[in-house]
Amino acid sequence: MISRLASSLSVIVLSIIVFLGGYVLGQSPVAPVQVFADTAVSPPTTAEFEPFWEVWELVHERYLRQPVDNTALVEGAIEGMLAALGDPHTSYLSPADQQAAEESMDGEFQGIGAEVEDVDGNITVVAPIDGSPAAAAGIQPGDILRMADGVELTGMDVTEAAALVRGPAGTTVSLVIEREGELLNIDIVRDVIKLATVRGEILDQGIAYLRLSRFGNTTDEELEELLPGLLAENPSGLILDLRRNPGGSLETVVEIADQFLGDGLALVERFGDGEERPFEISDDGLAQDIPMVVLIDEGSASASEVLAGAIQDRGRGVLIGQISFGKGTVQTWHTLSNNGGVRVTIAEWLTPNKSSIDQVGLTPDYYIPLPDVENGAAFEDTQLQAAIDFLQGKTVISIPPEPNLEN
Fold first, then answer.
1. What is the DSSP letter of 129?
2. How many domains are contained in the chain?
3. Which of these is catalytic: 91, 313, 324, 389?
4. Cα separations (Å) of 106 from 172, 219, 333?
5. In the 8-state DSSP scheme, what is residue 154?
6. At 53, which helix (H) or strand (E)?
7. By residue range, what is the domain housing residue 270?
8. 327 is catalytic
9. What is the maximum span of the chain, computed from C-alpha positions, in angstroms?
10. Of the listed 8, 302, 304, 324, which one is catalytic?
11. Is residue 127 part of a domain?
């Protein structure tokens, strides 16, 4: 099994840096791994590099404001090279952002606590972190961040936006977000966010409820500590809540899948040359037989989709909720000589049935929307109730979304 410092999945790493000031999703490893050992890379020819050096000399000789910052020029060149690939998941982190990213994987960071990605130039929320200031302020998946402290963020590189949004605990950032065409002003006080990524309880109906908020470096260990106590209560079923879980470490999700599935495939990685690498799990999990429902929504991404997809494909349980996010690629992380980092998309991942979910998402077995909630109104978790009803043998009525007739 690959070390969690060698390969991992997530939604956007820069998204987590924007709001958490850290690298919560475990998008890729901190230590480099040689993925394409037999691939020969031809260096650029002198002629191909000549325009770069021409511009470099021009800036140093003719640019108005001297001296120029060579470090900034080099980092800008790296960012531009990666941006030219057209892949939002392949990106560069400065040394400061790289350090913050590594620290956040240990589960503590300062920020507002939401994951975002760049969608067509819009910094779009994937999901707020459970218990974070962003969640408390009502930030929702799909919200578009338009301004931070009066600075326009639309079209801005995510790394640049990160410097404007993150900050020390106790300070306030004033955000303008767009939600369904309406602009909202939200002030959020940043905080130190400590992530306990697993929580669970026995519901009144005698059903075990297990919430995974992300797949961090210690999530599998947290689950191993919590699960035996829940199962000791002899629950009649298990609800695994992966809603608004933006993903995380690939190794972690494989370890967690081992708790719920018998031996067999968890996922398959497919590389650009067509090579496929299966991820197998053993038959020694604690919750392989208990009736099971998985809750997903549009904020369930990456590693969350790996786990939910494996459970669905192998008939281990049913999915209830809404179509998931659709992050189906794998990134690896390389630390550079300047202590910055580059993450590069190296593969796509497939469900055990070799289905790709990238930009498509997982389709739940039962579509259950959440009700619109007016200000001050009580929230009814219709998805959780549907999971309870299913495990109690009651009829659950799927409510598919209305078809989009615009196209």
1. P
2. 1
3. 313
4. 24, 10, 16
5. T
6. helix 46-62
7. 195-328+348-391
8. yes
9. 76
10. 302
11. no
Q: Is residue 62 part of a domain?
A: no
Q: What does the alpha-carbon distance between residue 42 and residue 315 come to, in Å, rounded to a whole number?
A: 46
Residue 313 lies in a domain: yes
Q: Is residue 273 one of the residues assigned to a domain?
A: yes
What is the model's pTM?
0.72
CATH number reported for the structural domain that contains residue 228 in this entry:
3.90.226.10
User: Is 69 an active-site residue?
Assistant: no
Q: Decide the pairing of beta strands 292-296 and 318-321.
A: parallel
Active site (annotated) includes residue 302: yes
**Of these residues, 28, 324, 327, 389, which one is catalytic?**
327
Q: What tens-digit pLDDT sequence spans the chain (407 residues)?
A: 333 323 444 333 333 333 332 223 333 332 223 333 344 567 777 888 899 999 999 999 999 999 999 999 999 999 999 999 998 888 888 887 777 666 655 566 788 988 777 888 899 888 888 888 999 999 998 999 999 999 999 988 776 777 788 888 999 999 999 999 999 999 999 998 777 789 999 999 999 999 998 898 889 999 999 999 999 999 999 999 999 998 888 899 999 999 999 999 999 999 999 999 999 999 889 999 999 999 999 999 999 999 999 999 999 999 999 999 999 998 888 889 998 889 899 999 999 999 999 999 999 999 999 988 665 556 789 999 999 999 999 999 999 987 765 54
